[in-house]
Specification:
Elements (H helix, E strand, L loop, with lengths): L1 H27 L3 H6 L8 H11 L5 H13 L5 E2 L4 E2 H36 L4 H15 L2 H15 L12 H29 L3 H8 L4 H30 L1 H8 L4 H10 L3 H29 L8
Antiparallel strand pairs: 1-2
Helix pairs in contact: 1-13, 5-6, 5-8, 5-10, 5-13, 6-8, 7-8, 7-11, 8-10, 8-11, 9-10, 10-13, 11-12, 12-13
Length: 308
């Protein structure tokens, strides 16, 4: 329980830092009052502008505004989008399922391809298969996601016409953005799985298991792979945050109606309430997932004991 409480406190500190940064966004564009009023400020008197500033609370000290911001956020109130003409929370909540769907598909691709290829590469070290997997991993980590997305659009969307190039609605729409988003994660996890398994394959307990006559598959999966999972699980936990937050570019390229694309549009229109809501909600998901990963460590390796 103490360990869980400590991890919760750490997550709260992270979310607090993100909330401070998100709150500061409203001042990066200048006077929030002028940003919200836009061109309408030119048709208002100084007294009317000051009245609106007082009504919105922008005339108060920044720390009072931050306390009010946090208090409202805890109740799900992130302000009102003056572009979408609806609460900022609703704008993000409408887009969040699409982002989670894309991130989940990319995550599944990463696990399905990275770990098996990493295991094969480690068990056949310095073979042609190992060299091929290594080259794939290097290419996957080197190619920029925006360039890979454009190449996939040109090849499979424009030339071959196999897949839709933008939008959502069917499983075909998921393929190209999912591959683009997961390419780096697949490459990194393949290399991590390979290096971690090669390290454990030289340990004494693996030699002992083989000397007892255990089948090679059991040695690889029950002893080597299980002990190699800790760094992989850590990377996967961080990867979920990357897939959620790093989907901004991918969603923009493929016209995917997710949170990332909405945040980009809100930044362009200076709709900072939507930006604040999107950033904080993604931070909450990221902190929650990493907390779950920390709690899963002992289930993966019984040797781990939580210490206070």
């Amino acid at each position: 329980m103490r360990y869980i409480i400590r991890r919760l406190l750490q997550a709260i500190v992270v979310v607090f830092g993100v909330s401070v940064a998100a709150f500061g966004m409203s001042f990066l564009t200048g006077d929030p009052t002028e940003v919200i009023l836009g061109d309408g400020a030119d048709r208002m008197t100084v007294a009317q502008i000051q009245e609106f500033r007082t009504k919105m609370g922008f005339d108060r000290p920044w720390y009072i505004q931050y306390i009010s911001f946090v208090g409202k956020a805890l109740q799900g109130d992130f302000g009102y989008s003056f572009i979408r003409h609806k609460p900022a929370y609703e704008v993000i909540a409408e887009r969040l399922p699409a982002t989670i769907r894309l991130a989940a598909f990319a995550f599944v691709l990463s696990i399905v391809f990275a770990i098996p290829f990493g295991v094969v590469s480690a068990t056949r070290a310095h073979s042609l298969v190992d060299y091929a997997v290594t080259v794939m991993a290097l290419v996957g980590q080197s190619i920029p996601s925006f360039w890979l997305g454009i190449l996939l659009i040109l090849l499979f969307g424009v030339d071959l016409r196999w897949l839709p190039i933008s939008g959502s609605g069917t499983w075909q729409h998921l393929i190209m953005p999912g591959i683009t988003l997961s390419a780096f994660s697949i490459a990194r996890n393949m290399r991590l799985t390979r290096s971690s398994m090669l390290d454990y394959m030289q340990r004494d307990f693996v030699r002992t298991a083989r000397s007892k006559g255990l089948p090679e598959n059991r040695v690889i999966y029950a002893h080597v792979l299980r002990n190699s999972l800790l760094p992989i699980v850590t990377a996967i936990g961080l990867e979920i945050g990357y897939l959620l937050g790093g989907s901004v570019i991918v969603e923009t390229i493929f016209g995917w109606p997710g949170v990332g694309r909405e945040i980009v549009a809100a930044i362009g229109s200076k709709d900072f309430y939507v930006v604040q809501a999107g950033v904080i909600m993604l931070a909450l998901i990221f902190a929650g997932v990493n907390l779950m990963i920390d709690l899963l460590y002992a289930q993966i390796d019984p040797r781990i004991r939580y210490r206070t």
